[in-house]
Amino acid sequence: MDGRDDVSEVESYLTIQDEGLEQLCEVPSILNNFRPFIPAIMLKWIENKIASKKTDQGPNDSTVTKTLPDIILAKRDIFSKRTATFPDDLIQLAYYKFRIPLVFFTHRNLDWINSNLTSFKRVKITYIPEKPNVLDTEDMIKKMNAAEDAGPTKDEDLDYISWREAADNHLEFEIKLYGGEEAARPVFLAQHYA
To answer: Taking a C-beta distance cutoff of 8 angstroms, is the pair 112, 150 a contact?
Structure first.
């Protein structure tokens, strides 16, 4: 990260050297500042490195801080990733090979979709023998455009941070859909989004 000439051109655009890793262990707020720009796979690597450093140092009682005799405050785990909740109706859309816009996978839009799931129109797929009713994505986008607490609604309107968030959530969605990280589609998306 410091732009030195001795860094290889094939290294990641974000390099954490040993002294930087030491600093991340001691001052976790540094990682929070860069969290939106770091891909999920690198965050996991950093978490594993920090965890291994902590186990090398032995047990640490710094996870709980006492401020008053009766009050114990637990420190927030800055490494915990926000969990995306995918409604079964989105999984059903993907199962029937409907294109789900990437923009649906930002945390803001997923929360909004989960909150308003019952208000969306359904369409019947007549060319499938079971004739299932699935979400009407055009109706979802129309309602998303009208809502103040949702958006953006077009993939090209995503900034890098929102795109990275949507890409990570979409990859997680595909892993859930295909039953594991080893399936062809999640492997392709992991390489595509990297």
So the answer is: yes
Q: Give the pLDDT of the chain (194 residues) as one tens digit per residue.
A: 455 555 555 545 556 676 776 676 666 677 777 777 677 777 777 777 777 766 665 554 444 444 444 454 445 455 556 677 888 899 999 998 888 999 999 988 998 998 898 899 999 988 888 888 999 999 999 999 888 888 888 888 889 999 999 999 999 999 998 888 888 988 898 899 88
Distance, CA of 175 to CA of 168 (rounded, Å): 11
Cis bond before residue 152 (omega within 30° of 0): yes
pTM above 0.70, yes or no: no
Whole-angstrom Cα distance, residue 64 to residue 74? 5
Q: Indicate the helix (H) or strand (E) that contains 149.
A: none
Q: What are the tokens at 176?
A: 């859930």
Angle between helices 160-178 and 184-193 (to 10 degrees): 170
Domain boundaries, the chain: 18-74, 88-193
